[in-house]
Amino acid sequence: MLKRKENLKYEDFVVEYKINSYDKLLSFFQENDENPDLRENYIFRGVSDYSYELIPSALRKYEDGNYKINDYINNNDFNLLLNTKMEYQNEDGTKGKGLVSCGIDKNNVISNEIPDRTVFSLDEVQFKREISVLLHFLDYSDKVGLKIFADSSIRKWIHSYLAYENKFYETWPKEEFYEIISLAQHHGLPTRALDWSYDYKVSLYFAIEKVLKEEKKYEDCVLWAFNYKLFENNHIMESDIYEDFVIYRPKYNSNSNLKSQKGLFTFIVSKKYDNMDKEESFDKFIINKLINSVDESNKELYFKLDGFKKFKIPDNVKIFYKFIISGNIKAEILYNLYLDGYGTEEIYPNYDGVVDSIKNRVKLENILNQNK
Predict the structure, then answer these.
(1) Do residues 44 and 224 lie in contact, with contact meaning Cβ atoms separated by under 8 Å?
(2) Average pLDDT over the chain, rounded to whole?
(3) In this predicted structure, what is the pLDDT of residue 105?
(4) What's residue 239's pLDDT?
(5) Which of 100, 119, 198, 235, by CA, is between 20 and 30 Å from 255?
(6) DSSP type of residue 264
């Protein structure tokens, strides 16, 4: 039974397993006395490095602290005037706090330029980063005739991306951007979305596929499972209350890769520039929200998130499963996935996927022979 609020912790909602055999992993996707069958109520995400957290790519940083999304932003086009209250250091080493007005570039570095486009927080700078790359994605895709879903309310901002405000003081991302974000994320552009799949074997493929590469061939990887049904079943569909997060499935009919991968996305929703640049993993975000939304007015423990009805979490139900898969069994798992029809040609159903599949099967055979 879940404890009262003051005693709740991360481990009450997340269970972690170390997987050293493929049969052990498969047992979680079969109905048995030990574990529930996760296929009905969970979605899945494969992570190739066990140390990686569930942080959306738009919020990931390099070791020097710069955002990876900045690789897609031209600094000459991204200069903003920051007007905000913040701490600063004087030349004599003393610290102060007050109103600061200065030019700022994509790396949050103060510049000598004084642009006319004003922002009022570093969270708002993060919003400008994300809208910048999304509108460039729309612009370039549209120019070469690629199908992309964007109505006139978005298209009019193509040439003035830094001016885009979007009535942001409500929430971000806005619903009209969901398709663009999903498409951009699927093709590798850093966004606020995380990729998931309804099919655990698809996610398993993405977790272990790097066994075919020399670098980190035998590193442990992770298969995540997220109990989306618990939230979907309690989602308030018609409500003026904005959700804390969104589970979104894009249009499959225009993207054969996404259809084959049975893909969908989660977005953490930011409200009024609230912690928008915070590098927080999805699992910790969800768990912290649950712990801070406990309704203890009844004898039983209820949870109430923005955009969702009040609900209970059954005693035997976890929000997340984290399967840490030993690097030593990745080749064996990939071989079994191939036998089950989860080769590169199925994950990427095009000519390039077929060619890669032929090459990858040769690589896998060599690895298996080396391990004998």
Answers:
(1) yes
(2) 86
(3) 85
(4) 60
(5) 235
(6) E
The C-alpha atoms of residue 367 and residue 361 are separated, in whole angstroms, by: 10
Of all helices (H) and strands (E), which one includes residue 221?
strand 221-226
- What is the Cα 230 distance to its own chain's centre? 19
| Positions of E strands within 7-57 | 14-19, 43-47
| Confidence (pTM) | 0.90
Rounded distance between C-alpha atoms, residue 260 and residue 202, angstroms: 9
- Structure confidence by residue, pLDDT tens digits, 112-165: 777 778 888 888 889 889 999 999 999 999 999 988 888 888 888 888 777 776
pLDDT value at 220 more than 90: yes
CA distance 328 to 121: 47
Q: How far apart are CA 13 and CA 176, in angstroms?
A: 32
Whether residue 222 contacts residue 325, with contact meaning beta carbons closer than 8 Å, is answered with yes
User: For residue 350, which of 260, 279, 233, 264 has the smallest C-alpha distance?
Assistant: 260
**Positive or negative, the Cα torsion across 27, 30, 35, 39?**
positive
Q: Which of 86, 117, 80, 116 is closest to 100 using CA atoms?
A: 86
Confidence of residue 168 (pLDDT cuts 50, 70, 90): very low
Does 248 have pLDDT greater than 70? yes
Question: What is d(CA 318, CA 297) in angstroms, rounded to the nearest whole number?
Answer: 23
Q: Do the strands 80-89 and 118-119 form a parallel or antiparallel pair, or are they unpaired?
A: parallel
Please report the pLDDT score of residue 147 as a whole number.
Answer: 86
What SS3 class is residue 196? strand
Q: For the chain, first and last CA: distance in Å?
A: 46
Quote the distance between the C-alpha of residue 25 and its chain's center: 23
CA–CA gap between residue 165 and residue 131 (Å, rounded): 9
Measured CA to CA, the distance from residue 257 to residue 265 in angstroms comes to 14
For residues 313 and 289, the answer to whether their CB atoms sit within 8 Å is no
Of 36-45, 63-72, 113-122, the one with minimum mean pLDDT is 113-122
Q: Is residue 75's pLDDT more than 70? A: yes
Q: How far apart are CA 118 and CA 125, in angstroms?
A: 10
pLDDT at 298: 63
| 328 DSSP 8-state letter | G
Q: Which of 79, 84, 85 is nearest to 132 (CA)?
A: 79
Query: Which DSSP string corresponds to 288-317?
Result: HHHHTTEE-SSSS-EE--TTB--B---TT-
Q: How far apart are CA 150 and CA 181, in angstroms?
A: 11
